[in-house]
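note to self — DONT lose this again. spent like an hour looking for the file last time. sequence + predicted structure for the chain T wanted, 253 res
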Amino acid sequence: MMSSFLRRLWQRHKKKSPGNTEPASDRTESSSEQPEGRDRRHLLQALSVLATGSALTGISHPAEARDSSDLPPPKRALTGRDEAGKSVLTSFDVTPKVVEIDANPGLTFYELYMTEGVPELTGREPDPMLKGTKAFPGPGGTMFRLISYPPKRPEGWKPPPGVTFESGLREMSEKIPAMGDHFDRAAPGMHTSDTIDYGVVVRGEMTLELDDGQKVHLHQGDCIVQNGTRHRWRNPLPEPCLMAFISVGGKRA
């Protein structure tokens, strides 16, 4: 049997329907149906009305893209070992090295961890990010970072007053040593590093562009392996994109 809610919904639906539009043969057939059959048919019609209304509501009121300021900064959990050799949580908070690039509002680097050479796993290693950061690790080193990319800029958008391409690269190198040196002056955004980079789209979408205009569109959860290749990133959506990267230093052949 129909619930009281669906029965009331169906009654309202019948009242709104034009009168005497149902063919006489259909009305006769309906009157001869068993109560269970009528209820079943009414239930399906009521659910159809309800589903259609919900779908139209979703189309009429699309969810607005959230700005990066609405999203909490990612937290980082660090582990180690105590004097007895047992594993312990040493910290769980936002990394002490968060870098915001003023020349490109919304571009934020969360510098999570880095190593050089072969790590000595004492379990009591100090947090390397307390000393600062760098663009990319040397041979055998690693760098773990999250990067929040700003939304696609609207038509006619201009950078902050006084900002130029060169001044933006200088700011990057001041905040992340030598980062600006990896960028191609002849092709803004293109950059290269002597690393293998493992990347994953954590939130949003991203377009990866390689040489000769080759592009691949990445969705949330998609991964990329950069083998020291020249590339640039473009956010195709009007909302931020968060990506995670682990870079392993190598030697260019």
